[in-house]
């Protein structure tokens, strides 16, 4: 009898083990990345995963003398080195560059999920504590290298976006939009930050961006979701997965657009002056879904998260369902490919890189952690037409690559992108701890 019981138990263990082995197999992409880019990407049937594909590139940093590979006709050099997890960039009117040296705040909770998240963050180079600092970089002699590096503001709470409006500099901490007085040429701010509005904190997607709209004297603030698909309850997503419009004088805000899982980079398109953003879409639908995207945003837009993706494709994992929303879920303008982790965004309004880089969007793709093969880990350019939209038939053009070495390890990972006062492109690299400067080759 005991022998039969042991055999049954062994069979049960083997069945469970086989099931776990099958569930843990990585989902391999069936489509070329290019098929999931552009205004009409290929949207396949979802391949739901209980255990996500884990294929994050090991972060190793840059060997001595190594640097990314620029597109033909461009050159790249280090603008600043020795930084501490530089994430975001902002250019002041006098040409000084601010860089937010920042990372996720300590995360709530633990358990197996927290442990796995910690392993992944360490593997990807994101396990370091946040410096909670904004540093000022100044290239006074115009040689393309910042010879002055000053601790501009300290004691912040996972700062990210920065924006100057009038005499106020606004900083988006993970839990609040704050401001300090600023005058041209300041190299250090000692004033206590003044609270403008509180922002929801905790969970996933800690980074908050902010840009100013000169036409309305308001600010746009992006706040990503706390989860993948509201699996912890939609009530925990209040004022998240949103772009908020902030009225700084009244210190109030309203939801400008919703259903955006993790909007990050935001910019005003130079011709139309309309707001655009890049968005990180949901996980665990396989290596071909869902595409991250670049899109224009208008007041009242809803892009479907968590119930729908890419303009109305239902995510059957979300409970309860929301069928009334389907016809109102706005389709994004341009797919960037699945899991590329599009974070940085700037338009080529004052770029002077020559060639085809005169009218379009530069996008920093931080790189996938759950796609096989990996995607992203580069800076791309999407050509635009004079109508303020991506050019017909345009595909993303590689601007800066080589962040992965020949063994697939991450020497760097691009995040924020801006132009400097000379028209060169600056790229924040939070694994290499460098700001790269891309210019037209002489």
Write the layout of secondary structure elements.
Elements: H1 2-23, E1 37-38, E2 69-70, E3 74-80, E4 86-91, E5 97-101, H2 111-123, E6 133-138, E7 148-153, E8 162-165, E9 168-172, E10 176-181, E11 194-198, E12 208-213, E13 218-223, E14 242-247, E15 252-257, E16 262-268, E17 275-280, E18 291-297, E19 308-309, E20 313-314, E21 334-338, E22 342-347, E23 360-365, E24 378-383, E25 397-401, E26 414-419, E27 425-429, E28 434-440
Tell me what you see in this structure:
With 442 residues, the chain is mainly beta. It contains two helices and 28 strands. A five-stranded antiparallel sheet has the order 1-21-18-17-16, with no helix packed on it. Strands 2-25-24-23-22 form a five-stranded antiparallel sheet, with no helix packed on it. The longest helix has 22 residues, at 2-23. The protein starts with a helix and ends with a strand. Residues 14-23 have low confidence and may be disordered. Residues 72-285, 326-438 form the Pyrroloquinoline quinone-dependent pyranose dehydrogenase beta-propeller domain. It holds the Pfam family TrAA12. This is Sorbosone dehydrogenase family protein.
The overall average pLDDT, rounded, is 93
- The share of residues in extended strands comes to 25-35%
Assign the structural class, choosing from mainly alpha, mainly beta, alpha/beta, alpha+beta, or little secondary structure.
mainly beta
Query: Per the principal axes of the C-alpha atoms, what is the gross shape?
Result: globular
Name the poorly predicted regions: 14-23
Helix content: under 10%
Strands, count: 28
């Amino acid at each position: 009898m005991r022998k039969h019981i042991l055999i049954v138990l062994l069979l049960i263990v083997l069945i469970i083990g086989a099931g776990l082995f099958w569930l843990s197999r990585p989902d391999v992409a069936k489509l070329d990345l290019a098929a999931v880019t552009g205004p009409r990407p290929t949207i396949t049937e979802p391949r739901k995963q209980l255990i996500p594909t884990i294929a994050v590139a090991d972060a190793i940093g840059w060997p001595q003398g190594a640097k990314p590979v620029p597109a033909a006709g461009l050159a790249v050099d280090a603008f600043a080195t020795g930084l501490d997890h530089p994430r975001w960039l902002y250019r002041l009117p006098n040409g000084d560059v601010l860089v937010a040296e920042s990372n996720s705040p300590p995360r709530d909770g633990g358990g197996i999920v927290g442990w796995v998240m910690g392993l992944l963050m360490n593997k990807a180079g994101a396990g370091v504590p946040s410096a909670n600092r904004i540093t000022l970089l100044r290239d006074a002699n115009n040689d393309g290298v910042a010879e002055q590096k000053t601790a501009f503001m300290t004691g912040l709470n996972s700062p990210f976006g920065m924006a100057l409006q009038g005499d106020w500099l606004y900083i988006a901490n993970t839990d609040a939009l704050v401001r300090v007085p600023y005058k041209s040429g300041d190299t250090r701010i000692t004033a206590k930050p003044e609270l403008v509005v509180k922002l929801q904190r905790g969970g996933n997607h800690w980074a908050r961006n902010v840009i100013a709209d000169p036409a309305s004297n308001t600010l746009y603030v992006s706040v990503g979701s706390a989860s993948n698909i509201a699996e912890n309850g939609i009530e925990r997503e209040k004022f998240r997965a949103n772009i908020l419009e902030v009225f700084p004088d009244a210190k109030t805000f309203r939801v400008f657009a919703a259903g955006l899982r993790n909007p990050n980079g935001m910019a005003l398109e130079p011709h139309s002056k309309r707001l655009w953003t890049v968005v990180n879409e949901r996980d665990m639908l396989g290596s071909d879904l869902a595409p991250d995207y670049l899109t224009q945003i208008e007041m009242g837009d809803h892009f479907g998260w968590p119930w729908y993706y890419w303009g109305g494709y239902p995510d059957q994992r979300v409970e309860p369902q929301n069928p009334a929303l389907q016809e109102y879920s706005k389709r994004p303008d341009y797919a960037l490919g699945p899991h590329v982790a599009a974070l940085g965004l700037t338009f080529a309004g004052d770029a002077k890189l020559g060639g085809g880089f005169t009218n379009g969007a530069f996008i920093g793709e931080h790189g996938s952690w759950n796609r096989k093969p990996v995607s992203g880990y580069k800076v791309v350019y999407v050509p635009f037409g004079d109508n303020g939209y991506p050019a017909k038939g345009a595909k993303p053009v590689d601007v800066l690559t080589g962040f992965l070495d020949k063994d697939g390890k991450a020497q760097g990972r691009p995040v924020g992108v801006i132009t400097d006062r000379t028209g060169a492109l600056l790229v924040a690299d939070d694994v290499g701890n460098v700001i790269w400067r891309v210019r037209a080759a002489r």
